[in-house]
Amino acid sequence: MSSLSIGVVGLIVNLNAYFLFFLQVVILFSSMRFFGDKKMPPSNSDSCWKKNEISTQLE
After folding, report:
1. DSSP 11-40
2. Confidence tier at 31 by pLDDT (50, 70, 90)
3. For residue 41, pLDDT beyond 60
4. Does residue 51 contact residue 59 with C-beta atoms inside 8 Å?
5. CA separation for the pair 56, 28 (Å, rounded)
6. Dist. CA 16–CA 12, nearest whole Å
7. Cα–Cα distance measured from residue 6 to residue 36, given in angstroms and rounded to the nearest whole number
C-alpha cells in the first residue's frame, strides 16, 4: 500500500512538472506575440490606446 501511495505522489509531481513547463511555454509564446504586436503598424496600437483610454474612463 505504501509503494502505491509513493507511486501516486510521484505521478502527481510529474504532472505538476509537466504543467509548469507547459505554463512557461504558453507565457513565452504570449510574450512573443505581445512583443510582435508592438512592431505592428501604428493603426493597431492607436486602436489599443483608444481601448485603454476608454477602459480607464470607465473606471
Report:
1. HHHHHHHHHHHHHHHHHHHHHHHHHHHHTS
2. confident
3. no
4. no
5. 28
6. 6
7. 45
